[in-house]
Amino acid sequence: MGLTIGEAYVLATQYPFKGKIFYDTDELRYAGGCVKPPNYKIMPCGIGTEYYKDGTIKKQGLFQRRGLVCGRMYYPSGNLRFEGYCLEPNGYGPTYPTSGSFYGEDGTLVYKGDFHCKFGGVGYPVVTKPANFGSLS
């Protein structure tokens, strides 16, 4: 029986390297620390930067296989959206904010403190506090 993705990822973290990951349409999606678990694609692992398809920075900081662990998220405009800490869910989906600062599109501090998420069904965690955080995709 083969290794699960989690087991393979943990083994691969012993051999990190600087790498790049691309969207299916060839735009740069991520650059920074990476790992290549056996029988899986290259995955983020370490300090790096994730990009929107147009090249604008989307996330910056410390990454693991499901996304940002500690760092910053940006709006498509390039303005700071979030700065803080994230966790990996037990089920499906990307990392989600747990504490930090949330900024409005205009740069004003909207919320600072603990974040709450709702989980259920197949799909991404939904941030419920602050209520106006928006999508994690």
Model description:
- The chain is mostly beta strands.
- The chain has one helix spanning 5-12, and strands at residues 17-22, 28-35, 43-51, 57-64, 67-74, 80-87, 96-103, 109-114, 116-118, 126-129.
- It has an 8-stranded antiparallel sheet, with no helix packed on it. A two-stranded antiparallel sheet has the order 9-10.
- A hairpin with a 7-residue loop joins β9 and β10 (126-129).
Measured by DSSP, the beta-strand proportion falls in: over 45%
Envelope shape: globular
How many helices? The count is: 1
Secondary structural class:
mainly beta
Number of strands: 10
Helix percentage range? under 10%
**Poorly predicted spans:** none
Write down the Rg.
15 Å
Instruction: Round the mean pLDDT to the nearest integer and report it.
Output: 91
Sheet having the most strands: 8 strands, antiparallel
Order of helices and strands: HEEEEEEEEEE
Terminal Cα span: 33 Å
Strand order of the largest sheet: 1-2-3-4-5-6-7-8
